[in-house]
Amino acid sequence: MKPERDPVTGRLTTGHEWNGLTELDTPVPKPVYFFLIVFLLFCVGYWLLMPAWPLGTTYTKGLLHQDERASVTARVKAAAEQRASWTSMIEVDHAATVLEDAALMARVRETGRTLFADNCAMCHGMEARGGPGFPSLVSGTPLWGATTDALFQTIMVGINSDHPDSRTSQMPAFGRDGILDATQIDAVVAYVRSLSQPIAPTDRIAKGRELFAANCAACHGEGGNGNSEIGVPDLTDTRWIYGGDSASIRQSIWRGRQGHMPSWDGRLQLWQRRVLALYLVDLRRHAP
Ligand code: HEC
Ligand code: HEC
After folding, report:
1. 216: Cβ below 6 Å to ligand 2?
2. Atom of ligand 1 nearest to the CA of 146
3. Is this prediction's pTM over 0.85?
4. In the structure, which protein residues have their CB atom closer than 6 angstroms to any atom of ligand 1?
């Protein structure tokens, strides 16, 4: 069929016809060509200036030599250098000196809070107050001491961790391992409860006291005050790792307990571990 003029639009048709439908010969609008050309020019320019085409093991580097990795590395290095002005003091200065230095402590609080949130809060809680199975780091008698050095050591090697120098501690399973029978455990539970709350003395508690002296005092101390040399908790305060109700205490004695605190040696840098130790000392000092 020959091209002819469409009576409605007045345009020429292409001459094609399908089932009585004819196709108008409408050219692509000029602006489309314009944008195509601009776009193509932009692409060619970009390919020449910026890293663009993969070439097997390498790629075209571009005339501007733009390298995101290099600029990130440079920025990280600059940040580390800037930080070193105070982190080097944290690394070498005596803890007591740092704790007295208001400007340094402001940095410790800010950085310590972030480090704690990123690495420790999932177990110890945002405010370091602990939760079931995880001790509070700001209140109660500390397991392993609350000096900067003791905290630094715990953070470095962990507790029952896979670090060769890990601190180790374990509460034996008196019930499961058949060291004490159920009645004896009931008595000792009653005695342990009486250590932290005013309960009228009973025969059972007296029996529990004897059993405690024979089985528990070696680790927990005569009065149940714990021993921070070997990471044994105080049973006379109202802070509990695993719970102070009869059922939880019974569970601790029946099944034993062994908390795991990871080692941060190698996972956090020296200055970061020192900041965390100082941060915790400071938190405890200001804890209500
Ligand atoms: C996977 C959970 C977990 C993470 C993460 C964790 N901890 Fe612990 N942490 C524990 C447990 C469990 C204990 C108690 C171990 C025990 O019962 O003997 C503990 C104990 C401690 C102690 C000793 C407390 C005392 O009273 O002496 C300190 C200090 C401590 N953690 C600091 C930290 C810091 C700082 C971080 C972050 C860098 C951290 N922990 C991350 C589980 C964790
Ligand atoms: C070999 C030392 C050792 C002996 C003996 C021992 N304990 Fe423990 N006990 C521990 C340690 C260590 C923990 C802390 C375990 C942990 O945090 O993972 C603990 C934890 C506990 C807890 C849990 C405290 C809390 O805060 O939740 C109770 C309760 C307890 N012991 C009672 C006893 C009683 C009662 C006896 C004697 C029948 C006893 N222990 C004997 C080492 C000992």
Report:
1. yes
2. 27
3. no
4. 119-120, 122-124, 134-135, 137, 142-144, 151, 154-155, 159, 169, 231, 241, 259-262, 264, 276
Residue found by looking up tokens 């109700």 in the block: 245
Whether 230 contacts 169, CB under 8 Å: yes
Q: How far apart are CA 237 and CA 79, in angstroms?
A: 45
What is residue 23's DSSP assignment?
E
Q: Which of 138, 143, 128 has the alpha carbon at shortest distance from 260? A: 143
Band the pLDDT of 41: cuts 50, 70, 90: very high
Q: What is the pLDDT of residues 101-129, one digit of tens each?
A: 999 999 999 999 999 999 999 999 999 99
Separation CA 45–CA 36 (nearest Å)? 14
Domains detected in the chain: 13-59 (no CATH), 69-166+261-286 (1.10.760.10), 182-255 (1.10.760.10)
Task: Locate 16 and state its tokens.
Answer: 């094609």
CB 4 within 8 A of CB 11: no
Q: What are phi and psi of 14, to 5 degrees?
A: -75, -15
| Nearest-angstrom CA–CA distance, 28 and 7 | 21
Tokens for 92? 């070498």
**DSSP code of residue 10:** -
In whole angstroms, give the CA distance from residue 220 to residue 190.
16
Q: Contact 227/219 with Cβ under 8 angstroms?
A: yes
* Euclidean distance between CA atoms 188 and 186, whole angstroms: 6
Cα(267) to centroid(ligand 1), Å: 15
Q: What is the DSSP string of 200-234?
A: ---HHHHHHHHHHHHHTHHHH-TTS--BTTTTBPP
Nearest Cα residue to 146 out of 9, 280, 7: 280
Residue count of the chain? 288
